[in-house]
Design goal:
heterodimer; A: 289 residues; mainly alpha; ABC transporter involved in vitamin B12 uptake, BtuC; two-stranded antiparallel sheet; 12 helices; 2% strand; B: 643 residues; alpha/beta; Rossmann fold; six-stranded mixed beta sheet; 24 helices; 55% helix; elongated
Amino acid sequence: MSDFFQLLVAGLSQGAIYALIAMGFAAIFSVSEIINLAQGEFAAMAGLVALSATGAGLPLPMAMMVALLTVGIVAVVMQRLTIAPVKKMTTLTSIILTLGVSTALKALMLLIYGPEARGLPALPGSNFVVAGVSIRAQDLWILGITLVVASAVVFFYDRTVLGKALRACAEQPVAARLVGISPRKATTLAFLIAGLLGAVAGLLASPISLTQWDSGLTLGLKGFVAATLGGLVSIRAAVFGGLLLGVLEALVAGYIDSGFRDAVAFVVLIVVLVARPGGVFNRQAQARV
Amino acid sequence: MKKRSDVVGVVLLLLVLLVGPLLVPVSVAGAAVYAVIYAVAAIGLSLLMGLAGQVSLGHAAFFAVGAYTQAILVTRYEVNGVLAAVAAVAMAMIVGLLVGLPLLRLRGHYLALATLGLGIIVTVVAIETPFLGATSGIFGIQKPDFGGRVYDSPDEYLWLLAPVIVLGIILARNLVDSRIGRALGAVNDSEVAAETLGVDTFRLRLKVFVLSAGYAGLAGVFFAHWLAVVNPNAANFALSVEFLLIAVLGGLGTVWGAVVGGFAVEFLDEGLRDFIPVIVPGASGEVQLIGFGVILTLVMIFLPGGLHQAFRAVTGLRAPRSGSVPSAPASEGRIDPDQGKIPTNLTSQGSPESVGEGALLVREGRPAPGTTLLEVQGLTKRYGGVVAVDDVDFDVAAGEIMALIGPNGAGKTTCFNMISGVTAPSGGSVVLSGQRIDGRKPHVFARHRATRTFQNLQVFSSSSVLGNVMVGRHLRSRVGLVRSMLGFAARTEERAIVAAARQMIGMVGLAEDADRPAADLPFGRQRLMEVARALATEPDLLLLDEPMAGLSGAERRELAGLLRRLRSGGMAIVLVEHDVEAVLALADRVAVLDDGALIALGQPDEIRTDPAVLAAYLGVEDDDPEAAAAVRDLAAEDAEGAR
């Protein structure tokens, strides 16, 4: 039984990382209907920037701030330079466009930081054992910070004027414009939020799963699957989806074969979509005529 | 192949592939081998994106499936190379079918992300499976030999590839220009309109996706033989991006673009791999990706049509939608007297010249006038707490014109949407020619010989008027994907489609506009075009959503005359219209909706004096007890009458 709880802890910790990425997908998609394939790159970039900052002698908290700032700027610049100029944004266009950006970012990281996988030092605290289950301090940090960040994001959308305005933009673009919220500004803000969420994920994950120029590929894909479990628009459901996916992966890796860990997300995606075709995505199902 | 430009292209390509290798250094010919192999894969991807409007981000997975299947069959089981290739392509297509089946029903991003995942899965499976050689892959694949010749140098391999890619191009070009290509093009412009004309979007998309997987599998076969080894890198993300870049750079949906893109990207790839380590010392790995990513982004922003678009701009050729034909507002409302002529073979009786007389579009086997065609019972639509349509009942018989009127927001269009399958009802049933169709997709509605037009126009804007109306012939023609690709079988049918479409266009008075881009037409004429497009399906039941809006007085009279003649031919017509006088003059029966409920149903004379209807239109308050009572009584009475 302690095996199970051990896997559960590892799964929740990994799932929290997916949840952060998934929230980023939902933040952008709910405002602009864009799937941002560079979401995973935000995480990888944060890890690599922080690594090079600590390498240059900065203390860890400072290095993390630098990474957050850098990724936030990159996300906003990405939106301004590549998303804003496109007049007719179709699903196809947004996917190819953000794939282009994500590919360029990956390669840029490869050129700057090289191909090696490295990990940030873990956040302070000592590991301990409860009832035969060993818990790493980093796991607690991950779960705690994810909880705080997720609550803050939910609070932002549900309770603040700005957050409500972002929602309004997604649901009623014309009405939002009439009351003075520009969809363009809203999209920029959504990218900023997504960038920061991705960066937090990358910084938290780095000590455990290491960071590499192409870590963003699988992280992004799994974050997307987690967001899909939640219908792609709901922040709360994205968190739930991330945790669920993390736990499923840990169980498959623990009880079946660790080699198949990366297959879980894909199978979950297919199963969810087959079980509820169109229903996962109720808001989208109605074609406007 | 129908176009001269295709013939020129094939001749040029054959020249390059057959003579070129003799003129260039071996290293260039070597790169050209990869360019051609990747172009074959990209042709499929270009069809998928251009025709089906879907994208695969893991197309290398299908490439790898083809390559591994070929490698295993020829090295382990010594299967003949050609037979193995057939099996390898089939295998890639089966994997495509399994992935596409659940995902293509959904919006574009699911297929994109799932295929991205598939690329990762195929890599994982290849690495984890000893049978597939794990990380080292499968070795010792022989170079192909035919007729005593071994194709083992770049030059020879290009000669082997030449007929393959040319065949691939011809098949793909035929598909783009076919009935299937036309239907998918229409889906990309307006999915809902294409479906109400009988296009089964899901099936066609699935077929194109499976086909594109087949192209990738074929490319994988040639890749395996050329490299002599297949390892998990064949399903690499970088390779998927390269395929995507080839298709995007060439121009989505343009087969030739993929070929040109193949060469451009392969030489870019080689160049970047050599150049980047020079400027960034110590750079290693997939460094060419930086160029891929940047170019992909720039093309999408500045040149969404790819090199094909640039080529057209330079040579002065214009795509049909670019507005080379000036719009002609002056001609609006002018009706050419000859255009009222009826296509003689579609007329049963009466003189073609006398507009408003003879029956039109009579069909063998259509239910006799007076037979009930459409039965709507208890039709209800709720959006959250709002009831948009509330328990509506009515029948429509063959050979009658029924009008659906009511104030704005009464639920008329929602009714149409539920009947035609555009939205699923929350309750009630829709029976068409004896079959329940509520909740089914619009193409099912169309298959039961019914179709509709739209209040907010759904024009296939990348096509001409003729092209729009030709889509209406989708169900009245049958050449499928395979015969479309083979080409020759489709010719005769294409001619018949064009002829029928032109007749329909003439019938609504748009003959002079037939070859103009549909997007250039004034609003009212686009409406008439939609009517022609709907008529092209030769429906038994036609739903028209505000067909008169935007028409001039003369055009309205023409249209009313046309509708009367279609009625004489036995067609049932239901129209939603705001012009109440026009409706009362035209319709046999009128149904009045108010606030989602059917408040009156009867002949125009009854409706004209119906107190409930007057109340709805004049806005009498519910708290006026007398009026309210009258409304209730009449509604109940009419509901009875409707059954």
